[in-house]
Amino acid sequence: MTPPELSRRRVLTGALGVAALALTGCSGGGTGEERLRVAFATGGSRESLDPHVLPLYVDQARAKACFDTLTGWSQDMTPEPRLAESWESDATGRRWRIRLRAARFHDGSPLTADDVLATLARITDPATTATAATLFRDLDAAASRAVSPTEVELVLTRPNTLFPLAWGAPGTEIVKAGTTSSDRPNGTGPFRLASFTPGGSTVYTASEDHWDGAPGVRELEFLPVDDEAARIGALLSGQVHYAHDLTPTGAARLGGEQRASALSAPASASQFLVMRVDRAPFSDPRLREAVRLGIDREELVRVVLLGRGRVGDDMFGQGLRYHPAGVGPVARDVARARALVTEAGAQGAAIELQTSGADPTFDAATALVARQLGEVGLRVTARPLPSSGYFRAIRQQGVFSQNSTGSLPIPDYIGRRMLTSTPTYDFTGYRSPEIDRLYHSAVATTDDAARTDAFARILGLLRAESGALVWGVRDWNVGVAAGLTGLEAARPNTFAWANFARARLG
After folding, report:
1. Which domain holds residue 17?
2. Is 4 part of a structural domain of the chain?
3. pLDDT band per the 50, 70, 90 thresholds, residue 33
4. What is the CATH number of the domain that holds 401?
5. 3-state secondary structure 284-351
6. Does the reported pTM lie above 0.85?
7. In terms of DSSP bridges, do strands 379-384 and 350-355 run parallel, antiparallel, or are they unpaired?
8. Which of 126, 232, 261, 416 gets the highest tally of CB atoms within 10 A of its CB?
9. How many separate domains does the chain show?
10. Is 108 left (phi over 0), alpha (psi -120 to 50) or beta?
11. What are the Solute-binding protein family domain coordinates in residue numbering (predicted)?
């Protein structure tokens, strides 16, 4: 998922506001150690609880509390059974039979095959504007059917031997057939909704009869704290037990603390510079290559990430399955970069680099990139944009921008973001029919070597031509209070990330 479009530095007037909210509560019951309080950046008054429209990380976490998916993504980004107890496909990879486990919605009704079909119909309905819609573009809804109440058959218009990956993507939560509104969610997840205020607190109560066991806490409360310093302050003062998405500096601040600590999942978010290949000045490939050779990735990781990450190799998915082995980072070559700038007639050219608080590393990276590219003859200045709507703005109007993406399976990243049919994530104006061809070949084959080769070729094309370069892969940091157990350091978008079902307060 692209990082959340974090809103303004407004929430609850810092930690004091969190304290007030935590003390007053938002719905019945809940004593101090029965209610787990978690702090996330939120989307303000426009928020909803629609489990199929998840623009923010907090939306994903709330959906995970109340709903479940057919599969979940493991830490190595492979599918694991959730509501789908087992599955199998025919030899072509076009017909999939899914056996559902015994689970119940919060209203007591059983999960059925009709609920799965209704969910997919809602996701693929353009009116929903679902986050995961493109993953099901090849679903043949007319041919898919309920074989029995607990068995569903999904039919595709073309082969996809990796289809179970799609079932665990954010925004694929299963809803009850007949659902027309998300105001009162009725899911199969470990928590039931008690109250929700857009831009404010959301409270859930434990579903004691959840199919995977009762949660470890009686209540779960999401509190809106957009400012990282306020999240850390609330954590250290005991007003919240969990603080989401900390910068390297924030994580380092918790080192040696007895009141709280940081959980860090290594190499979990790719940090990008994106250049529009269809807009001046980066429509000139010489300038794109000058930027690629002109930045110092090692310095960026050392200074911006405080060493809490890896140097990027300009490819998404470092450390994940299907990422090609042996690809190293691009070595900085100031002389060659300066020569390319001169050759392009751009010596001293003024270029704005768009940034915002939408990612905690963007501003620091922008300042450093500006200095580094100044050494090759480009005059780069920061252009701050509002966090709210940042990713939409750089997609529509960007030329040179900061971007970031949390962990995703490489097939999901390509299939949802890099094809000619997926303009929603087009940050560079680059699309290639050859990538489409290689992708459909990769997901159709049962030959893993051929699939691996196809994905490697796609990533190679993106590295060479797309205008997007990955300068670093940062660790994913969250803060947890002393005495809070049952959470693990997890990559964002995986099943274990922001999953509070097994959390316990000491």
Report:
1. 11-66+189-259+482-505
2. no
3. low
4. 3.10.105.10
5. CHHHHHHHHHHCCHHHHHHHCCCCCEEECCCCCCCCCCCCCCCCCCCCCCHHHHHHHHHHCCCCCCEE
6. yes
7. parallel
8. 232
9. 3
10. left
11. 78-401
